[in-house]
Fold this protein.
Amino acid sequence: MTTTTPRIQLGSSACRLLCTALVTTFALTGSLALPARSSAASTLPPYGWPVKPFDRVHPVRGTFGDPRTVFTGGPSRRTLLTGEGSFSFHFGIDVSAPNGAAVYPVESGTVTAVSQAKGREYVDVASSNGRSFQYWHITAIVAPGQRVEADATVLGHILRPAGHVHLTELDNGVIVNPLVPGHLRPYADTTPPTVTRIEFMQSVTGPDVSPRHLHGRLELVATAQDMPTLPVPGAWNGLPVTPALLSWSVRSAGTGRIVVPTRVVYDVRTHLPDPATFWRVYARGTHQNMTTFGTHYSYRQPGAYLFRLAPDGFDTRTLHDGVYELVVTATDIRGNHGSLVQRFSVRNTPSVAGA
């Protein structure tokens, strides 16, 4: 049966076996909210990295909004298209660092929570400015109520075999993207993301339809990805992440006139989508890097990120019969972008279709 709403299973055996396949949840401390926007983000000072050196860019192997997928079924196409499991948006960034590396607070503050439950190892530190941070996959050496200093107090050490610390930022209880300009720094990215495929489908799990002869209501799916700004060491080297923004438009193939203005379907430049919209944002077939299928762990296997351009379907009858171009653009957090153009023909009128 197709899962339409994300189900969170933090205690699943797959999560306990693999920190890197942790399924995220938006109820981490019981106090997280997901309003549309946070007013604090533009006024707070920037901060450095949670591992040494604090003033140097580190590889980010998992970015904000990446899909987090744990399937209960085995590794098959059927599982990808219809299988149940736990699905969520990545609520922070994964900073690559060696196992055992010391993790430091990026801002001074007070430890408000410590969890050492297996699969849920994290430390929460609240600052006096309404901002708080969570540091996941670490063995804590601090306690609730303790005062900690940025770049000085060791919160704990990265657990084996995580190979990274997950950093979550919250401004007044709202999860925000740490990579947005003015937050984590230094951070630079000069490589554009790519759109690798555009598909027209009868349904989100149905067969492809030829772009040479489209009619009626269809599903539009685009595959897009970005690469970490710095090479990630070890088994995660060369594995993709998601872009920060995905948009599309339709233009006439003959005149270039825009007939469907730009529509944004994915935007995590500042905040996450509603967690209940996971399978409206991502199309079936999506899975994270090294995803888990039942007891099978897809070691070193890259993820795939398929986006639904029109989750309620695209009705070709809103266009006149003719030839058009669908333009899909992926953009990263620093504005680098790449596009793919797919030409298609609309043939709704029977006489034209017969011709």
About this structure: The chain is about 5% helix and 35% strand. Confidence is low (pLDDT under 50) at residues 1-41. The first helix runs from residue 13 to 17. The domain at 13-176 is CATH 2.70.70.10 (Glucose Permease (Domain IIA)).
